[in-house]
Amino acid sequence: MIKPLIGLINLIKSIILLFKVYPKKFFFFAFVFLTLLASIIEIATIASILPLIDLLIDNNKYLSNKYVNLLVNTFDLKENELKLTYLIIFTVLLIVSYLIKIFLIFVNSYLNHEVAFYIHNKVVKKLLNQNYKYFIDNTTSNFLAIIEKVEAVRGVVFSLLLLLMSLIMSSSIIFLILLIDFKNSIILFVIMGTVYILMYSLTHNRLNDISFLQAKIIDKKYKVFLEFSQNIKEIILRNLNNFFFSKQYEIMISLRNSRISAERYTNISIQTTILIFMLMVVGILFYFTALKGNLVSNASLIVFYVVAIQRLIPHAQNVYVSLVSGIKNPQYSILNVLDVLNLPDERNIKSDNFKMGKINLNSEISVQNLNFSHNKELKNIIEDTSLNFKVGNIYGLVGRSGSGKTTFFDILMGLLKTSSGDFFIDKKKISIFNNYNWQNLICYVSQNTVLTDGTFLENICYGEDLNKINNKHLLDCAEKAECLEFIKSREHGFETYIGEGGAKISGGQRQRILIARALYTNKPILLLDEATNALDKDKENKIFKNLTRLKDDKIIIAIAHNDQIKRFFDIIYKFDEKKIKIDN
Predict the structure, then answer these.
(1) pLDDT tens, residue by residue, 466-499
(2) Is a pLDDT exceeding 90 seen at residue 394?
(3) Could you give the angle at which helices 79-128 and 140-180 cross, rounded to 10 degrees?
(4) What is the CATH number of the domain that holds 407?
(5) Domain membership of residue 36 as a residue range
(6) To the nearest 10°, the Cα dihedral for 361, 394, 573, 564?
(7) pTM for the full predicted model
(8) Do 126 and 271 have their domain in common?
(9) Which residue, 60, 69, 135, 163, has fewest beta-carbon neighbours within 10 Å?
């Protein structure tokens, strides 16, 4: 029992970290203050039952109470007036108690969703601030899964707030019961505590396993549906509907069964606990009837116990459910979210690289003694290589597949950190890794870049304020990318929707839209990673001919396998045996 308890305490400590990142602490203080106020009114309401019942059944047991006497003497109350006064006091306390609880619901609801919303945004920002290598080492489905797991944060935040509120409320009721009847109350609470500990012990290990399983299944779910989206053509062509359905069915049925199991374990333990507590109420009635022998003389105490336990059980159940189901069940999903929140901000906009100031490219880029491997255990992909790129030239990168051409682009864009080597801009040495000011000089077009589910305009001007579009520049870029003609041929022109990933246009048209996007950004360095491989030879030649007219103030570097476009390259670098050399 000690080990699970320590694990639970450590888990709660970890979850509290979620609250620490939330800046609006005022709402927490307001929530705690209202909960304390509600608990005070609650115990006052329950405590007022004792003299009220005593007066209503004409039992003068509590007439000697100093608080009752103070009320009688202060307002000079007669016996019938005292009954009415106490009934009014009890009613007012009851109304105020529930009004505060209703207001607590508003605060709790806002705080619950607000914290979850804030943490969601924090997670997304953390992911966006990671190095490119982080995205290489993780799959797209993992990123999608982590967003779903962030949803578990809302449930945990709710459970933690409910736990705090219920702990305060139940503690105040327990204190009152102990104050009224200490000896019998101790026996009552020992029994209740034993029941909860027993139930927790019986469900702890199983719920722990279910939580771990659910986190893994969510990862698999996103992996299979992403696979479906990416392979939809092959699924249709080969009639793989049953194959895919069976694959996702196994995952979804596992997720369903794990959730059913979690709910069963939680709800059965809840109902069992309630049954035991109801039997305790019956036991209290039996105690005062059979053992005390005078039910009427103890009527006020009996009603007090029944009402107090009736109020205590929901709070005690909330504590139990919050710990067992609300916090324990999604624990591995929450720990995954916390892992993301604890990631360092590799690309923090406040970092030194972002503060280095604007970089101007006037004449050349020089790379000296470059060495690179993806990690220390692997051999170098690029080894002891030096090369220059001058403004006004178009460079071609050639070599067999896997020789390191795209990797070199990733290095040049500051996405991958080199093992060694120096970079010079106009003979001035700079660090380009994660250097935003350097990356701001570059536009990159890949054969794998995905278009957004929007219009031609939104895709060409991606990331720009559409209210500030330079229409002349837009038309010029579309013309040079050889896509203006087919855009204008559409009924809605630039406002034509092209579908998810550009599904409503051809592969060659998608590449021309991406080239138009690159030209619109008007950066001094343009990198083309087989960006024209889906085009026919005529269009490809026209685009490179257009690029030769733009090269005077740019460095253009293209990876290409088509021998026909080599005539547009001023210099060709060949990748061979880990070296990059001029191809004569």
Answers:
(1) 888 899 999 999 999 999 999 999 889 999 998 8
(2) yes
(3) 160
(4) 3.40.50.300
(5) 2-341
(6) 170
(7) 0.69
(8) yes
(9) 60
